[in-house]
Amino acid sequence: MASWKPNVELLQGGDEAEWCLVEQHFGGRLLAYAQRRTAGDIQAAEDILQETLLGAVRGIQNFNPAYTFEQYMFGIVRNRSIDFMRRRKLRTLMGDAENEDFPDLDAFIHNDDTPSAIVRGLELSGRAQELLGIILKEWVGETWSSGEFQRLTVLEALFSGGWRNRDVWRAFGLRDETAVAGIKFRAIKRLQQLAAQRESGGDLLDFLAIAEDGGGRLLDLDVTAIWTEHFVGCMGRKVLGELLAGVLDAKAEEFLGFHLTAIKCENCRANLDDLTNDSALVDALLARLAK
Ligand SMILES: [Zn+2]
Predict the structure, then answer these.
(1) Which fold has domain 1-92?
(2) For the chain, which residues score pLDDT lower than 70?
(3) How far is the CA of 235 from the centre of ligand 1 (A)?
């Protein structure tokens, strides 16, 4: 069953039967994933599953064949789960726990210091989002190659984990919040350079300029979604193989440990299971990395 792959062309053509098969083959696993994310809230997990399936239908025209269909589905369910948890957190913060409706976007916008930045952030075009995913990955690649693993871990915590600056500096033994802001600032600067080298980088440069000013929270949400959808923090199977063999640099291993155990990347976990064909071995590795 795990080896079943849909015909993406049929899905893109809106073939009902093929979409039903997707639901049959992935529904259970996606639901289990969502349930873990919602701490067992079944109703919420089912809502997330529905949103995931809808999201899959909406996004299928832009399906990127560089990824497997499974990665595509799990990228979506992960994003929907993150969105859900954020909305729930926000609702709790607003003291509106009885109200079952999620707060609308206005609540977000009026809660932030820079509404115009947020509105502009929301307008980031599909093309610009795609490009942002590409340059984020490029940035991760060059940061990895130059051995700046702590910087990588900090950005993963901020963008993928949604951590706050003050939690990051404590967790990673940095001097203070300013040090975290500095890392973020330099990353944005570098992303601007990478965007400028690309055709059609214009939209993205505007977006990054706002981010550089401190931006709004929704900008971070955009980056988080793209970071996850594009598997930005994921390393290839070659690196995962080196991790298994225990031949990685200690700091690189720390980054992957964070990615696998704090961010709980399902994609890399699946790759490790696949590489070893031995989930007990992978569990033992993760337990070691979690320390
Ligand atoms: Zn990963």
Answers:
(1) Rna Polymerase Sigma Factor; Chain: A (1.10.1740)
(2) 1-2, 89-125, 200, 210-221
(3) 6
